[in-house]
Write a structure and sequence with these properties.
By secondary structure, the chain is mainly alpha-helical. The chain contains 14 helices and five strands. It has a domain at about 30-65. It comes from Picea sitchensis (Sitka spruce).
């Protein structure tokens, strides 16, 4: 009898009523999760998403074919010239479509439109090459210093999408070693999200970060930013004290 009771109890435990996490209906199963209908529907949706992703990858690859090095060399009609005289070739139509600054240069009676040469002398060849590559492919290189340089270049030529991508990349890498520098950079280039992330980290680590060399350099170069740091720090202290007082009452 004991064995029969144990077998029946085991069967009962294996088959229990569950609530589907998708449709919220009850169903009987031997495992937790979703009902069969929702499971099958989710599987079909997953397969459809995989197909859509593969299709998008295929389209992107197709669109990028014309931006190969050979095509750029053979069919370009504009040159971006660096300070050393070296040039990076591009298509006028691409530059105009991606940057309102380039559009103004190449559609109006300006030297750049007449000579089909745009002089960009304050960036390195690698940075400018990455910039042009992004205009064609929307691909960036996972390099932190490159992201800073590209953000400045994107700001100068008003390529908003690239600017946003660079700011997100830099913000995700803010740490104790670069927080102060990132805060100053964010102020200089009006990068709101980067500024907030860097300031938050500085405030949380005031005792250590204010002893660093870059902090003392900031005091000399731009004391206004130091004032902002301390105002934010004191504001946080006041808010924390007020919350603690409220909780005690």
């Amino acid at each position: 009898m004991a064995r029969d009771y144990g077998e029946e109890w085991g069967k009962t435990m294996r088959m229990v009523n569950m609530t589907c996490i998708s449709c919220k209906d009850e169903y009987t199963t031997s495992s937790a999760g979703t009902c069969r209908e929702c499971y099958e529907e989710a599987s079909e949706t997953e397969e459809e998403l995989k197909k859509e992703i593969e299709e998008l990858k295929s389209r992107i690859a197709f669109l990028k074919m014309w931006a190969s090095e050979a095509m750029l060399d053979d069919y370009t009609d504009v040159s971006l010239q660096l300070s050393d005289g070296s040039k990076i070739k591009a298509h006028r139509a691409v530059l105009i479509s991606k940057s309102p600054v380039f559009k103004a240069m190449l559609e109006n009676e300006m030297e750049e439109n007449r000579t089909r040469t745009i002089k960009i002398t304050d960036f390195s060849y690698e940075v400018l090459r990455s910039f042009v590559h992004y205009l064609y492919t929307a691909e960036t290189f996972p390099d932190e210093q490159m992201a800073y340089d590209l953000l400045v270049l994107a700001e100068k030529y008003q390529v908003k999408h690239l600017r946003t991508v660079c700011e997100k990349f830099i913000t995700s890498r803010v740490n104790n070693d670069n927080a102060i520098m990132s805060f100053a950079f964010a102020h200089q280039h009006n990068a709101k999200h980067l500024r907030e992330a860097a300031l938050s980290l500085i405030i949380e680590n005031m005792n250590t970060l204010t002893t660093r060399e870059e902090y003392h350099e900031l005091v000399d170069k731009d004391p206004r930013l130091v004032v902002e740091i301390y105002e934010s720090y004191l504001s946080k202290q006041v808010n924390t004290a007020a919350k603690e007082a409220t909780s005690i009452c």
